Amino acid sequence: MEGSGEHGETSKGPLSKGVSRGLCILDLIFRVIAVIGTLASAIAMGTTNQTMPFFTQFVQFKERYSDLPTLTFFVVANSIASAYLIISLPLSIVHIIRSRAKYSRLILIFFDVAMLALVTAAASAGAAIVYLAHNGNVSANWFAICQQFDSFCERISGSLIGSFAAMVVLILLILLSAVALARR
Q1: In the 8-state DSSP scheme, what is residue 138?
Q2: Whole-model pTM?
């Protein structure tokens, strides 16, 4: 066994190169999925509004995402994350071609972690507002608005799904990049 030259090291042959390329392709796919999640969330939230007449057509209540600063933060944060992910796509393609690139992958991990923090903060803040919109808070005399603005609440709830999905994909991206770096 000692003369065979194998001492528990992984082979750097064609199989290892194929696995590295597969990880890079998976990285690209995850980035595209994260772009879709963050962009769809930002668009869904940013285009959400509902008008409800109050007694007559002349007196109306209008609810928009921009009425709540937390939801504005949600749109901006998801837009920033989406822009970053779009900008990172060419670098991810470079990793498919040159899977041995190390420093660019470190840079991507750093910014992926920053975007994960941003999307997590936005999704969490948005979830808190959506919870209040659905349930209200009796002790603070905040009434649930989703009984009146049901379309508005459905859209903002739906936009949270894309953002939380993007969070999961960003976590997978970070883990995938760490595995790819560990294989070097």
Answers
A1: G
A2: 0.81
Question: CB 128: neighbour CB atoms within 10 A?
Answer: 11
How far, CA to CA in Å, does 160 sit from each of 28, 169, 181? Answer: 23, 14, 32
Please give the Cα distance from 129 to 148 (Å, whole number).
16
Q: C-alpha distances in angstroms, 90 versus 81, 84, 131?
A: 16, 11, 38
**Residue owning tokens 């590295």:** 20
Q: What phi and psi values does residue 98 have, to the nearest 5 degrees?
A: -120, 85
Longest dimension (CA), the chain: 91
Amino acid at 93: I
pLDDT band at 47, cuts 50/70/90? confident
Looking at the predicted structure, is the pLDDT value of residue 67 above 80?
Answer: no
Q: How far apart are CA 40 and CA 122, in angstroms?
A: 14
